[in-house]
C-alpha cells in the first residue's frame, strides 16, 4: 500500500520512488521541532475564548 502510493507520487512527479520517499521524510522530519518551537514562545495569557470573540468582532465589522 505505501509503496504503491509512493510509486504514484513518483510517476506523477516523473522521479524515482527513492526521491519521493526522501522528500516526504524530509518534510515530515521538519515537524519534529514544532513542539519545541511552540514551547519556546512566550505565554501571552490570552485564552481561546478571547481570541474567538475578537475574531468574531472583526468579521462582523467587515
The fraction of residues assigned to DSSP E strands is under 5%
Counting structural domains, the number is 1
Oligomeric state of the chains?
single chain
Total of DSSP H or I helical runs spanning 4+ residues:
4
Write the H/E string, N to C.
Answer: HHHH
Structure description:
The mean pLDDT is 95. The longest helix has 14 residues, at 17-30. The protein is mostly helical and 62 residues long. It is built from 4 helices and no strands. It has one domain (2-61). Helices cover 76% and strands 0% of the residues. α1 crosses α2. The protein has helices spanning 2-13, 17-30, 34-40, 48-61.
What's the topology here?
Elements: H1 2-13, H2 17-30, H3 34-40, H4 48-61
Q: In a nutshell, what does this entry contain?
A:
The chain has 62 residues and is an all-alpha fold. It is built from 4 helices and no strands. The chain has one domain (2-61).
Kindly list the characteristics that best describe this protein.
single chain, about 60 residues, mainly alpha, 4 helices
Amino acid at each position: 500500500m505505501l509503496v504503491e502510493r509512493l510509486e504514484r507520487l513518483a510517476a506523477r512527479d516523473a522521479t524515482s520512488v527513492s526521491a519521493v520517499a526522501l522528500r516526504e521524510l524530509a518534510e515530515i522530519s521538519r515537524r519534529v521541532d514544532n513542539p519545541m518551537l511552540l514551547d519556546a514562545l512566550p505565554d501571552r495569557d490570552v485564552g481561546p475564548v478571547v481570541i474567538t470573540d475578537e475574531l468574531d468582532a472583526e468579521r462582523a465589522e467587515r
